Amino acid sequence: MGKRIYLTRERIIELETELDFLKTKERARIAEAIAEARSHGDLRENADYDAAKEAQGHLELRISNIQNMLANSQTIKSSDMPDDDKVYILSKVTLRNNKTKAETMYTLVSAEEADIEQNKLAVSSPIGKALMGKTTGDVVEVRVPAGKMQFEIVKVGR
User: Fold this and answer.
1) Cα–Cα distance measured from residue 115 to residue 14, given in angstroms and rounded to the nearest whole number
2) Measuring CA to CA, how many Å separate 25 from each of 19, 49, 67?
3) Mean pLDDT of the chain
4) Which residues share a beta bridge with 152?
5) For 95-136, what is each residue's pLDDT tens digit?
């Protein structure tokens, strides 16, 4: 068994839906592309065949990765976390950048759910690691590729 992966129920449903699509629709589409490319003759110099086989390899790798994630997943929900004001996975944390004074709200999630465009920050990221266990009013300093940044925790919620 692999490393335990913590996922929300919503993310598990997304992965199950993607897996079903990949195993049914995408496999069939790539099989058709391979058959079409084979019908063109000599496979040694057939770029369409090579591209279709490469796509098949990427597809099977994605399917395998999703299956492994699901097999090793454990569902988490915010109600499972302590009710204190400390930062944990699934906490909604409002941070103030001490340099720019800009405030941003992030939800701390597992690395498999992280999506910066949706303000979902991985607990394993440098900022996520710095926030774990902290409370409202704490200031954290984080080393990021651009240098050191300081954030004040404005609010912690569930």
Assistant:
1) 14
2) 10, 19, 17
3) 90
4) 96, 139
5) 999 999 999 999 999 988 999 999 999 999 999 999 999 999
Whether residue 80 is predicted with pLDDT greater than 80 in this model: the reply is no
Full-prediction pTM beyond 0.90? no
- Confirm if 72 and 87 have CB atoms less than 8 A apart: no
Confidence of residue 144 (pLDDT cuts 50, 70, 90): confident
**Among the listed residues 60, 143, 51, 130, the one whose alpha carbon sits nearest the alpha carbon of residue 95:** 130
Ordered structural domains, the chain, with CATH: 5-75 (1.10.287.180), 78-157 (3.10.50.30)
- Asked if the model's pLDDT at residue 140 lies above 90, the reply is yes
The two tokens of residue 146 are 């651009």
In SS3 terms, the chain reads as CCCCEEECHHHHHHHHHHHHHHHHHHHHHHHHHHHHHHCCCCCCCCHHHHHHHHHHHHHHHHHHHHHHHHHCEEECCHHHCCCCCCCCCCCEEEEEECCCCCEEEEEEECCCCCEHHHCEEECCCHHHHHHCCCCCCCEEEEEECCEEEEEEEEEEEC
